[in-house]
Amino acid sequence: MNAEIDFCMPSLGSDMERGTVTEWCVKEGDRVRRGDIVAVVATEKSDIDIEVWNSGVVAEILVEPGREVTVGTPIARLVVEASTAAEADRSVLAHAGGEATADRARDRPPPPVTMAKPSAAGAGRIGASPLARRLASELGIDLDGLRGTGPGGAIVARDVTPASIVEPESIEAPQPDHHRRAESVEAMRRAIARSMSRSKRDIPHYYLGQDVDLETSLAWLESTNAGRPIQQRILPAALLLKAVAGAAARLPLFNGFWEEERFRTGDGVHLGVAISLRGGGLIAPAIHHADTLSIPELMARLRDLVDRTRQGRLRGSEINDATLTVTNLGDRGVDVVHGVIYPPQVALVGFGRIAERPAVVDHRLEVRRNVTVSLAADHRATDGAAGARFLLTVDQLLQKPEEL
Q1: Which residues on adjacent β-strands are paired with residue 162?
Q2: What is the pLDDT of residue 399?
Q3: Is the entire prediction scored with pTM above 0.90?
Q4: Which has the minimum average pLDDT: 8-22, 29-43, 295-309?
């Protein structure tokens, strides 16, 4: 016995009310597994790859590309095993941000299973999504030169970029649409304004700051990088993120969400990293389970995340799952960051620039490198004493980088 469930428009942030399906990466009859990318959704901030949260078969696609719908609206229907249907509904409800439809068991068999596959060279039409074909046509790109990353190797929109081609210099890049870019930036600023206005209106912020000596950490980092090729060298940002992740694991009251008048701890330390976009605007996708990663792994994840963010290739889980956000404005010359919490999170950690400053060490005046770490926290979930312990823990972890 099989059951049908609705796959709904997910909520990709607390300020999202609507989204537009720009591309389906699957078709009716395709078999999907949990974590597969099935669609691309455009929000005011970015185009996001949407993952499916249950394994099954795509029974029906309910929303055509280009249509805007509210969060929680069913956009596709899946057939799953009846034994997992109850769990499937709970999963869809959790990630859609709307009311999931109850199980609808059917006696009819599920649709025949097919997978989108690219044709062999010369054997016919290349497997590609309609949006991918349109982009390829506009850019003058031959689909034969691309490797598909969609289901069964099908070419989808994210595969059709000059970077996908073996010889990108042979392609004349299209002229940027400045009007469309300006509209996109304006829409993002409106989304950020709504979210930050809600944050300052509803969250009783308190702020703390602490100067942290980085001489030991930076000396360790310089020694570690000495034996690494340039492309594998670790930046100080990875050390700072690792220290915050470690502190969040030890003090979980800062790692989670304030919902329905109570605190809910996150299911892991998923650090949101604030990333500025080249065209303007800001987004903070998550590095999952950051506390379990080694510093080199964290550095690799950070590079990958920044890369994909600026290419518009984020996954829905990276937008949804952040439990604590970190912002670093040191490269802009800022000494201290007083951040605004991203609801429903309960804390934000900020880092200023790493600079040489006078310090007293063993009754002697020395010039040492340090950074100011700030904490913006929700007074409903924690208080200043707990916040001080959090910053102290970050400091202590940075004094023993080899243990990080």
Answers
A1: none
A2: 96
A3: no
A4: 8-22
